[in-house]
Amino acid sequence: MSTETAKIAAIYVGVSNHRGPNHDSFENQKSSCIEKIRMEDLEFLPNFMYEDDSTSTKIMDSEGMRLLIEDAKKGLFSIVVFTSLSRLSLDTFDTLTLKRILVNGLGLRLISLEEDYDSGVYDDELKFQLMHAAINMGLTLEEVAQEMVTHLRTGNK
Length: 157
Known about the structure:
By secondary structure, this protein is α/β, with parallel strands linked by helices. Helices cover about 45% and strands about 15% of the residues. It has a five-stranded mixed sheet, with helices on both faces.
């Protein structure tokens, strides 16, 4: 990552049927991400906006994510901001694979607004997976942790 791109952020927005077909429009997602970028004192350039409007395509095959990865490999930005892990994929394996490519492989910083996840602050793969699982179950991370504790105490699987 060059010093020129250290503070440049890209935005990824996508559809999700997780909370209904109209949950968080592209415009709402963009506005939320731009506000976070301003709060973090980062820079956003409009040509680093990536969109996917299909829920039927695997994230690794989607046009928006393919372009984002291509530009990231070119070193055009160092941060990706998105509203929720559910915008990446509802499939935990796909989301984890994408995280490994972007964070571990390309050295990018990922910021997810809804989950308050920031790989630049604390990059914990287990927490990342648990957050994604919590979204898919409609629970908070704290509720998932409590469920795990309960199951461990009672010996249930």
